[in-house]
Predict the 3D structure of the following.
Amino acid sequence: MTKKLSRRDFLKVAAATGGAAAVVGGTKALFTSSQAKAAGAGQLTTSAQDVIVPGVCSLCPSGCGILARVADGKVVKLEGNPMHPINLGALCPKGQAAPELLYNPDRITGPMKRNGERGSGDWDEISWDDAAQLVAEQIRAAREAGHPESVALMYGDTRGQLRSFFERFMQAVGSPNLVSKESLNTAAAKLGMFLTQGLYALPVYDLENANYILSFGANLLEAGWNPQRTISGWTFGRRGRSNRNKIVVIDPRQGVHGAKADEWIPINPGTDAALALGMAYVIIKSNLFDSQFVHDYGFGFDDFVGEGGKTRKGFKNWVLENYDPKKVEKITGVPATTIARLAGELASNKPAVAVLPGKGGLLNGGMGGVYAAMAIHMLNGLIGAIESPGGVLAQQYFPVTPYPDLSKDTVAAKGLQAERVDGAGTLFPLARHAYQAVADRVLEGYPLEALFLYDCNPVFDAPGGAKFIQAFEKIPLVVSFSTFMDESAQYADLVLPEPTFLERWQDDYIEGLGYPGIALRQPVIEPLYDTMNTADFLLRVANSLGGEIAKAFPWDSYEQVLEFRLQEIGSDWEALKELGVWLTPGYRFAKRGSERWFDIVGRDRLRAPRDGYFDFYSRELFTLLGKKNKGDLEKFGVTQMGDGAALPHPEPVAYAGGEAEFPFVLNVFTLMSLGPKSETANMPSLQEISGMTVRETWDSWLEMNPKSAEELGLRENDRVNIESPFGRIRTQVKLAPGLHPDVVNLPFNQGHTAVGRFAKGRGVNGLEIMNPASEPLCGLAAFTNTRVKVSRA
Amino acid sequence: MTNWCMVIDLDKCVACQACSIACRMENNTPVVSPEEAKNGRAIRWNDVFPLPVHFGPDLGEYPNVKTHYQTRPCMHCKNAPCVKACPVQATYIDEEGIVRQNYNRCIGCRFCTVACPYGVRYFNWYKPQWEGTLAEYRNPDQVRVNGSLEGPAVRPVGVVEKCTYCVHRLVKAREQAAAEGREFRADEYVPACVQTCTGKARYFGDLDDPNSTVSQLSKSLRAVHLLEDSGAHPKTLYLSEG
């Protein structure tokens, strides 16, 4: 049997021979009866041919392994892949409904070129070759003008090797403008890690082994950055082991996670930092902290002598002087006795862990949120939960085969020195990406000649996204790789549809358990339409560009790129296709102070030594802010000076909209059902179940505390106007007793004006009335500082 | 004979609704129009819904509130009211304890939907429809009993349908064992909702086998039936929270 049989070939062969007994490339015959046989419960008739093909879901960042049941060439059911360690055979409603994505009647069936005005919906067909020529010409023109940086790529999820592939492409072209969506969601948590532990990465929590889990607004059960992973960890701790864990959720909104937790602590919005520091006060005062860790592997716990012989304030005295729980009670609304109890429970029920929100919750969105993330992560440092069972782990990856050396031409080398289009690193000194700022900066005059949109829909998913429509007007070529005609693709010049995750080659890093793993997406059926993997398209573009760029991409297809990159992970390519996953289970803990410890603590620091010390006093922030004067700091939204700027502290939230006029804080939260991506809103089954928590369906709603609603004379299902300084939307009220009286919740991913027939015209998009500004230090989208007023419509 | 039973641990259930959608994709329950869904005519054999419960001194007052989330498949009652109410014996309890529905016999009188204390029987008010290409993903499996359709076969308008514990999967697993020339074991089959459960909150097996997980769990102090006093002798078990 030939070893080099591609999936597409295999499907053809299998169809031609009518037999599915062959076990090739991850396919195995499960059940092949076409004849009804007598049995006790009845007789069965089914398809002539059933094959099971592994893959990986892409509808949220969890990346669960799937097994697709392909019956007579049609995908009829998805199950979780039991080999995949994130979901262990489980699959959430989005993954279950994925056949509705594949067979969605609103998919784009082939590449299209704009004919009429932008946004007119008038499209011509275009061939892939012509599209590649067109894109290559635009890039060539930008490079010939000496400005390769005027080519930008914005992306949402880039799984596996795709991130490095995009990086390589942009570097070969010569543009630093590869902009991630993380400033909308995970950046605050990553910065919290970076400024304390020195890793610019999301923390990994060993939830299974934790006796006590303290979640600061981390929506562990609906829409964190890895919901299936956190659900597995949560429920294992419930009944999968001899002693049941205790889970405490701190969040103004009870939601599903607060209801399922052992205790829900409602907190005033935006005051998590104060609560964490109040707990730190109790832990320090009661001597419950891990003394060895804070003194031998922590920096700045005690006062210390800095440069010039000046005595600097350490974390301990900072906390003891400022964050007495009685004082914290006034800020957070959480009783001092509760704060003391939580602190005691956390520090004396080890292993215990304090969990940061990756997405959702009221933590993200301002420098105050970053300080909060630091304070929360420092609780883990205080109790010695860093790199320990039941605590915080650091994600490890397989070593992949390095790409061949990239020789950049002079144009590219110059272009890479240019300032980024989103201002990350310059305008926003601590930012790595500032997705929402791209529109502002383009409108301010940053010249872009070509903009690519991969797995993102900024017109819909950025606060005040309409500004992107104006920004697109200034860009001669906007290309969307969306599978659906979403709000951003509508205003593009070229729409080059990528196939769904069930029809394309892509790998996926298994993240969230600490140990390294790779999962593989492969076409489980032949692509339904004339679509092309974006990476394959870029290979064509690179080829047309010629020169060093073409030399940088000596592959014919992205499948070959994957085969090349993954050749040394320890799995044979055929085995990987058959299993769908490859991993080396079992997290290897780095011993404190060992050589590997330096990969766990301090690895990514830029302005502070990578010395393996966990910062209780952020040297990174001190270098950046320590010597700035009050006025400069205020511009960054930091009210403390000197040591205070480097130590975690609560910052008053700079709300847009005065409290008198706009009494409620707007919280736009993500649902388990509709998820974070625009295309899921066009899956009818998910629309049907989207409003389960409030018994609503196919619509938006505004959650309000019953008392707050009563004061406004509002009852369940009343239509209301929600007005912020940035606009007004209209929806219905749902009373949510488990909600802070000053907060209102609006679910994300309704209010589409495009995408498809099921998504369009349903409900409202809360981001339309959200503060479109960027936080000045870290470039975060201002996600949590919008106030609104609610009135009867 | 096996006595199939499901146990749902509410301490592990996280109300994600994967069961609802897994059931839909496995059993070809149609999406109804948004208007009909708002009227409560959505067909999800396993639905999840919130039940506000209150505790503490100020009952129901913020912050002493809690919502309980209930997931609800068919209880496959031993003394099933729906079976008694059916005038044409379209619904019946099979010898393995599964309450089943014969679409060819059903006359659409909906007595059973009223009789059921749990509200888990669903009427097809309209011809089930899948818009455009969405029809492609329908499960091709069909179960026939004496020529009559059951299980995931697409239903005609005007009949009642319900959870079958994915009986076609049972038939399939039996056939697979027979084809491989070996005895069928009770752990070779689970319904779609059990397989997909994100919190691993669902267990399935033979209640009459003292060594099975479900029979062990049925002895738990947390084990409860919904509406125990309804007289229906529900079989599907819940393990209470906390």
Chain B has a mean pLDDT of 93. Chain B touches chain A through 75 residues (CB under 8 Å). The CA atoms of residues 153 and 193 of chain B lie 18 Å apart. The longest strand of chain B covers residues 47-54.
